[in-house]
Amino acid sequence: MRFDYALVHLTYTIPPAILLSILYAPLCTPRDLYKIAFLVTIALLSTIPWDSYLIRTNIWSYPPDGVIGLKILDIPIEEVFFFVIQTYNTSLLYLLLSKPVLHSVYLVKEEKGRSRWKYIKLLGQLGLALVIKKGIEYVRAGGRHTYLGLILVWAVPFLWMLWALAYQFLVNLPFTSTLIPIALPTLYLWIVDTLALKRGTWVIEQGTKTGWTLWPGLEIEEAVFFLVTNCLIVFGLVAFDNAVAVLDAFPAHYPHFSGLPSPVTLVRALLLPAQTYDDDRILGLQQCVARLRAKSRSFYLASSVFQGRLRIDLIILYSFCRVADDLIDNAKDPAEAREWVQTLKTYLDLCYGGPTKTADGREIAARDPNQGPATQHIMQHFPPDTQLTLLLLPTDRLDKEPLYELLMGFEMDLQFTATSPSGPIKSEVDLDTYGARVAGTVALLCIQLVMYHHPGNTSEATAQRLMRAGHDMGVALQYTNIARDLQVDALNTRRVYVPPAWLKKEKLTAESFVTGITKTSPTPSSGAGTSDSDAFFLKKLAALRSRLLDRAFEFYDRSKSAIEELPVEARAPMRVAVESYMQIARELRRPGGFSVKAGRATVPVWRRLWVAWRALCGPVGR
């Protein structure tokens, strides 16, 4: 039958390609397409001459009645398509599993003469060189080791080169970015190859194979072939991401970096000596990512769909907000908390104060890494685990007013006391103001970073309107946050963010609200097993939460359409950021209650992923 090989594709290689394409389509970026096209091109250019040689020297063959008949350099068109589809499928799996990874945090500065990485690199090169030597011996000997030797001599030099360029990443990256994208396609293709060999779709000549099998029906040469080709694909993808990570992480080396770097630029980035890496920047990014992962699963998930330097800047901004909040919240008393607010204000004053002059007339930039007044203030007044975040905050791209307003929001938190649980929240207007300061400002700053990295043709008027809409969306998220944390805030900090007028409508005061929360803990999401009075209080709690959520959705509804006016590179990621958090509000409204973890309503992992995928596909309704 002339379509045996074509049927292998229709049955075994094209269906996974379709499935992976559907799954990854909402996540796909121009850089991803460029990466896949780059790898497919290299795969074709490197494999066609080798495969053509094997066919012409009768190492393997294809029965004439098993292929259509179209050929490129004696290679059946189905085989050429196999090079493409294997590279495509393995690349998509790699991209899907690597999406959450911020590759720049896996870079490592190597100290000259004192780094273990030199030995890791040499050990890998030596091991691969020995495999190449063995392959050469097999080819020279001929006979039954010929095919195995030709596989090793062809593939392993490429692996040696890729290891030499990207050994740090190949060792450091999570196994989900290395081992799994190699192992799964390899195992799958071993099974497909076993079936094809049994059917006679392709044939290895008896005199050039060892006769060893991995399992009945799978020649060891075929097993090695699929293993090394998937290693080549993944090693190539890792090397590409290593190069892009260098370009993204070090603007001092690459101030003007295009989102689609040329092959020459990629090679130059890979050849940048690791001794020249900015280890403070790498460590700072690692701390920022760890802080984001620990503090907000929703925004950690959302950050993974932003790209490049925008993603890095957004993570640093979030980390700064967490650092400031934690310094103030974890102070031993209100006086120390106010000192931290003042210290942070001084930090902003110095960052935005412009250069200073030395006695000899030299100008020193405010954020000069060695002598800048802002840098010195950070090193002298902030804890070590916060310093790098403060040093990395991109104040040159951010307006100062929202940052000062953020600190004003933290000052409002300091007005809550044990004797005044309502603190500064005397009305709905006060609650709006609080939300605007602690969250609206951050959302506005996020939009500023988007507009900086993707300016496009957006007019100043449109940019201002988008920032106002972002500000409102931030308020919506803060109302959601308050609704989620009603119990936690009342129990842990005796803070009641609900306006007194709302409490009064439920015949409550701030004090009686705290008392009611205390009595109904630790399972405030359910009335089961409680007294009648507790059940009555829980109904009031639900009514107050519902009102907070109504307000959240008011701000959400009037600002969500602006997301579709953002630069195209940021629309889908911003949808994910917003919808991942607003899903908490939807969970709080679900009939039958909601899941609680550590006193907070949570969104199950599977639902968070579904919400993110749906948001990537297009605008989401309420």
Automatic annotation (TrEMBL):
User: What are the subcellular locations of this protein?
Assistant: Membrane
Q: Does the keyword Nucleotidyltransferase apply?
A: no
Biological or metabolic pathway of the protein? Carotenoid biosynthesis; beta-carotene biosynthesis; Carotenoid biosynthesis; phytoene biosynthesis; all-trans-phytoene from geranylgeranyl diphosphate: step 1/1
| One Gene Ontology term from the biological process aspect of the record | carotenoid biosynthetic process
The UniProt entry, under PROSITE patterns, shows:
SQUALEN_PHYTOEN_SYN_2
Q: Which CDD domains match?
A: Trans_IPPS_HH
The UniProt entry lists membrane topology as: Multi-pass membrane protein
- Show the GO cellular component annotation of the record: membrane
Q: Does the keyword Transcription regulation apply?
A: no
Spans through the membrane:
6-24, 36-55, 80-98, 148-166, 173-191, 223-247
Entry EC no(s) = 2.5.1.32, 5.5.1.19
Q: Which GO terms describe its molecular function?
A: geranylgeranyl diphosphate synthase activity; intramolecular lyase activity; lycopene beta cyclase activity; squalene synthase [NAD(P)H] activity
Q: What reaction gets catalysed by this protein? A: gamma-carotene = all-trans-beta-carotene; 2 (2E,6E,10E)-geranylgeranyl diphosphate = 15-cis-phytoene + 2 diphosphate; all-trans-lycopene = gamma-carotene
Main location class = membrane
Q: Which Gene3D superfamilies match?
A: Farnesyl Diphosphate Synthase (1.10.600.10)
Q: Which domain of life is it from?
A: Eukaryota
* Sorted UniProt keywords: Carotenoid biosynthesis, Isomerase, Membrane, Multifunctional enzyme, Transferase, Transmembrane, Transmembrane helix
PANTHER family linked? BIFUNCTIONAL LYCOPENE CYCLASE/PHYTOENE SYNTHASE
Membership in a protein family: In the C-terminal section; belongs to the phytoene/squalene synthase family. In the N-terminal section; belongs to the lycopene beta-cyclase family.
NCBIfam families in the record, alphabetically? CarR_dom_SF
Q: What is this protein called?
A: Bifunctional lycopene cyclase/phytoene synthase
Natural source organism:
Friedmanniomyces endolithicus
Q: Supply the source organism's classification.
A: Eukaryota, Fungi, Dikarya, Ascomycota, Pezizomycotina
